[in-house]
Amino acid sequence: MSSSSNERNLVVIQLSGGNDYLNTLVPYNNGLYYDYRSSVRIEPEDVLPLNDEVGFRGNMGPVKRLWDENAVAIINGIGYPVPNRSHFRSMDIWHTALPEDIGTEGWLGRSIREIDPKGENVLTGVNFGRGLPRALGCRGVPVASVGNLETYGLFPDIGDENLRKYALDTFAKMYGGANGGDAVMEFLGQTGTDALKGADILRTAPEKYNSSVEYAANPIAQSLKSVAQVMFADLGTRIYYTQHGSFDTHAGEIESHTKLWDEVGGGIGDFMDDLREHGHAENTSILVFSEFGRRIKDNGSGTDHGSGGVAFMIGDQVNGGMYGEYPSLEEEDQLEGDLHFNNDFRQTYTSILEQWLKLDAEPIVNGKFEPFGLFSS
Q: What pLDDT, on the 0 to 100 scale, is given for residue 119?
């Protein structure tokens, strides 16, 4: 398999459920924030200031460290026109880059198709988690979806190698007998064949991995460790996807949001340390996003579905700083009690595609959008 050591990688972390923008990047000098957030708020002394207006919540120390190293870009006010407060519809919009229509292809699936148009590497895109996010779905584009990298594979529990080979041969024949037949069966046959090709290759990654970084024993940290293992094994993977949540903090937000950012921030910090230790920090960038933000006013214990959010690009080739404007909290500037978005998420996608992955963004994001200058080269 061809080496990918000099190719650029994109790691996408989805914060599922709607991350609370106001309690992530806190407007700690804005009295309106404290007026609207009588219960669910971050006190000024618990903020890690980035400037005189905003700062990270106090337990985002690993991300603040990367910010201080100019390796974090904050995309303020990210969203799309006519925001939808349904988890499923909003995430579908982010995944397909189609705010007004129902899409059939994911933006990353299209990207993988452009990176590997002949489908020569069934591991160009890998999802770490159960199921397949729609962002990666695209007809004819193979994507491996890994629950547990340590045990991943086809029939891994069959200890006897001869029996396992027999089972794999049977599997291959079962999926390979539709030549020239029904189109659906041909599609299933190709899907099964691709799974057969990729499964055992991925299982080799952990045994090749050696690192001084100790990841925490939580799902997002372990998923990022798996990303590192596959990346360092040089299997030709370019797009890595994982998610964490739930950030749907209708109740008990102070405790749950703190825990979530302990896990996400710590995992990102460890992952960046691992990338640097293994010489992959210069060719890897991380996108962190959520489907929407939360309401400006709390509900006494948590916050409800809102609009206008925040996203992050993280990496040693990222031009750190603020992008977009922090939305106004003034009542006349609100959108029915929500934050207004001020930049379309497809601007960020366009930046990633054109400036980082060197792809033509317009057919992937379904339109032409002005990119940010998120990357130094």
A: 86
pLDDT of 251-292, one tens digit each? 999 999 999 999 999 999 999 999 999 999 999 999 999 999
Name the 3-class secondary structure at 77: strand
Nearest to 187 by CA among 149, 229, 139: 139
Look at 95 and 197; give whichever has higher pLDDT.
95
Whether 61 shows a pLDDT value over 60: the answer reads yes
Q: How far apart are CA 154 and CA 309, in angstroms?
A: 40
3-class state of residue 57 by DSSP: strand
pLDDT band for 103, please (50, 70, 90 cuts).
confident
Reference 280, options 372, 367, 353, 213; nearest CA is: 213
Q: Are 324 and 369 in contact (CB under 8 A)?
A: no
Instruction: Output the average pLDDT for the chain.
Output: 89
Cα–Cα distance, 338 to 24 (Å, whole number): 16
Q: Which single residue is written with the structure tokens 């891994």?
A: 156
Single-letter residue type at 52 = D
Structural domains of the chain in order of their starting residue, each with its CATH number: 9-148+208-365 (3.40.720.10), 153-202 (no CATH)
pTM value?
0.90
The token duo for 197 is 């090709």
Q: And the tokens for 265?
A: 């921030």
Query: Looking at the DSSP assignment, which residues form a beta bridge with residue 144?
Result: 126
Contacts of 355 (CB under 8 A, 6+ apart): 371, 373, 374, 375
The answer for residues whose C-beta is within 8 angstroms of residue 171's C-beta and 6 or more apart is 154, 155, 192, 196
Q: Rounded to whole angstroms, how far apart are CA atoms 260 and 16?
A: 11
Other CB atoms within 10 A of residue 78 CB: 27
- Return the minimum-mean-pLDDT range out of 15-29, 177-191, 210-224: 177-191
DSSP letter, residue 56: E
CB 60 within 8 A of CB 48: yes
- The b/e string for 352-361 (b: 16+ C-beta within 10 A; e otherwise) is bbbbbbebeb
Helix axis angle for 161-175 and 183-202, nearest 10°, is 150
**Dist CA 276 CA 295 (whole Å):** 38
Read off the pLDDT of residues 121-167 as tens digits, 9 standing for 90 and up.
989 999 998 888 999 999 888 888 888 887 765 444 445 555 645 55
263-264-267-268 Cα dihedral, nearest 10 degrees = -160
